[in-house]
Amino acid sequence: MRDVSRSPARPPAAQPATRSAAQLAWLDDPEIAARLVTLSAGALRAVLAPELGGALAAFYEVTPEGPVHWLRPAFREAFEARDPLRMASFPLLPYCNRIRDARFEFDGATIDLAGNDPRFAHALHGNAWRHPWRVGARSGNAVDLHFEHNPDASVTGDWPFRYRARQRIELRDRALHITLSAQNLAGRPMPFGMGHHPYYPRTAATRIHADVQAMWHADADVLPTHVGPHPAVDALRAGMSPDAFDLDNNFSNWSRVATIAWPDEHRSLTMRAQAPFDHMVVFAPANDPQLCVEPVTNTTDCFNTVGVRDQVGGCVLEPGEQIEAALSWTPHRE
């Protein structure tokens, strides 16, 4: 029996070429380009779409043969639909992945997030990706993006805690660095988790390398049932093909280093994360071109899931408390 069914929450995307200038044609559209922020450092480029959930639209390298895409670039349709789910990556706050039935109990009250998006039966990825982010300090190779959430009681399913978040996005040392931070602005404790949601080019030769300890098995709604062994754990340590399993699963207690490799193209991308990004999601559905390896601070449905803290993750931010942690993606070419 397989561990999960294909998630209905993540729309299929066309297979992206790993080296294609056509994927970036939207950069030549003045209307789209005017709303983007492009960072450069040497041959590396990172294109941000602040208005679309503070998302990353592309991360690539300029070469004489054309751009080499290190993340799956956005398609023009993503901009036309204003859909962060079709971007190269986007931030996840104030929780990652799903909350069962869009509700949970916290501090003696029921937090009801139902009704804010009829596409999904379960609350998905928090709310920061659904709103524009403001551009702050900016240079040629770095930018700060800011988001502040003020609860609105008239909005069905709105996150009921006030908070602010920041992304510091920078190209340096031949790598992409993203520092995520958040502060609880509410006058009461706030449950919290965060992460980023990168999509990678997926080919027949792609391999994922990561040292993980266990996998959260999931039900048909891609919600966790129990943590334990699975052949994917050993496969990831050896270098797993995205086609090996039908996955949309959390892995606990990883080493906070993962490498996505394209050995036939003689290149790889190493992702590193600081604590508390102690959990990793692999989304590699069968018969689908999508591939995500996501650094997150909490497992799916962490506010409802019963288990030891280091397996479930997430935290509670006290009033005024802040949290900050960094991620990086370093390309390697032979």
TrEMBL record:
What GO molecular function annotation could you give as one example from this UniProt entry?
Answer: isomerase activity
Q: Mind telling me which Pfam families this protein's record contains?
A: Aldose_epim
What are its GO biological-process terms? carbohydrate metabolic process
InterPro entries listed in its UniProt record: Aldose_1/G6P_1-epimerase, Gal_mutarotase_sf_dom, GH-type_carb-bd
Put simply, this protein is called Aldose 1-epimerase
- Per the UniProt entry, what species is this protein from, by scientific name? Paraburkholderia sprentiae WSM5005
